[in-house]
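Hi Y.,

Following your request, here is the sequence exactly as I used it, all 314 residues.
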Amino acid sequence: MKNIVFIVNLLLFLLVLSCKKVNSEEHQIEDKSIYQKKVLPSNYDYTQIEGEPLRLSLSYIHPSVYFKIAEESNIDVSLKEKKLILEKAGGAKNIESYKIYLERNSDEDIDNYLNKNVHLLDLNNDGLNDVVIYSHPMSLASIEIFLADKSNFFKILSYTGGYAEIKFDYLIGKKNYLIVKDSESGGGLFSYTTIYEISNDKAVMLERRVYNSETLFPKDFKNYDKAQVIKDSDIWAVCDKNIIEGEESQFYRAATIQTDTVCFILNSHKEDGVDWFFCIFSYNSENFEALNTYQGFTGETFYYGWIKSENVKK
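Below is the corresponding structure, written out as tokens. Let me know if you'd prefer a different format.
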């Protein structure tokens, strides 16, 4: 009789212990979701009013490095398995850089492409390896991203920049945003940051941020005050009166902004007795119409730059 009671008690104890373990695992999953939200910028705003830029912090929109692909890549996957994954993602029919590489190189050279250009990363924290292909197939920086589900891969991005170093980040929250920066490291005057919203198996271009490659960004975006330009004005990469009035001022000009253009003051600075605002300006200048259709872009375009405070009204 005592043995029966002991066995029953033991079974009850194991059952309780098992329930605690399940609850603990569920709690860990919940904590992981919470943690993903905590790592976002503290001033990140998920809401967007039509015509206004997303409120991304300086560290997210203009960092020195967005994502170290090689360091984060899954290096345990064999080259043979990488090749099978590329074929599953659509092969040369769907992967532009892969197609170009196969056309220009022998089968024996494919290992070099797979090793240096094809990276497997869990971009959206769902436990599955997504495919990031970062290459220079025609002396142009190219990035192609395929998100994985349990049975397939979905191409969400194919981006090519002119002699550029393209870096990216993936934000997890109420919405997923992919940020691609074309730094124009080959000597172009402008840099571009393009923001995509990721929804299921596609990416929609929301915004492009344009700025002079020499732009001196403030240490942070402290404010987000809506304002208006009160007269046609140039915006500049620097807040230095001597530079913008010098012989090489054309290299530091970012754009000509028209009267009544809406802007958002992100920071302010005083230099040599002149008050400056660092702002993000909504696009409405005919001088930059070509940039608005750059690579078929159809979203909102905004420009960063310094403007004299006297030309802006809050």
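The mean pLDDT is 75.

Thanks again,
Q.
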